[in-house]
Design brief:
Blueprint (H helix, E strand, L loop, with lengths): L3 H11 L3 H20 L9 E11 L5 H14 L6 H17 L4 E11 L2 E5 L2 E3 L1 H10 L4 E5 L6 E3 L2 H6 L13 H17 L3
Amino acid sequence: MYRKQAEQRMLRLRGLDRLGELARRISLAVEDAYETARKELVAHPPMVHKVLVLELPVRQVTHEELAQAKAQVEALSKDPSQRRKMLWHQSVVERFERQQSQRNEKYEVHVLRLGEVAIATNPFELFVDYGIQIKARSKALQTFVVQLTGPGGYLATAKAISCGGYSAVIESTPIGPEGGQMLVDRTVEVINGLFP
């Protein structure tokens, strides 16, 4: 947002709208990568696909968070235009009720090997720390972490949760930091198993 005026100027000078500019950038990046990658063609690269179903511990709703969520539900339920936000808080109340008997949620993760490249999917919007751990610990020459492949929500670190913010509050994070580390460890284990 701090470069907004400069970005608007460049769009005007290029005669593009925002969508056109994004298309231009993607096209340039693909062309640039293609020019380099085509120098090393591999006829029959190793290709493997593994599907994992991980049971990750649900981020536990505290009694204080429950009380705050209930208060928000009560206040917001009076205004039909606030329904979506009210349901966001209601999900915390429902999770508190579920956590009495259900401590884990199942999530699907895919790990692929294509030549010397690993691709790992997950249903979350990961905080950067988790993605870096996967890439740094991977034996693959290059590792891509693909996020938001399902209904996972944010996956915040312990530090982020202690600092607060929209992407770290209980409403936004169905799985806590312990589950994040489990996701990282299991993903890395499977990737590395594909690269002996």
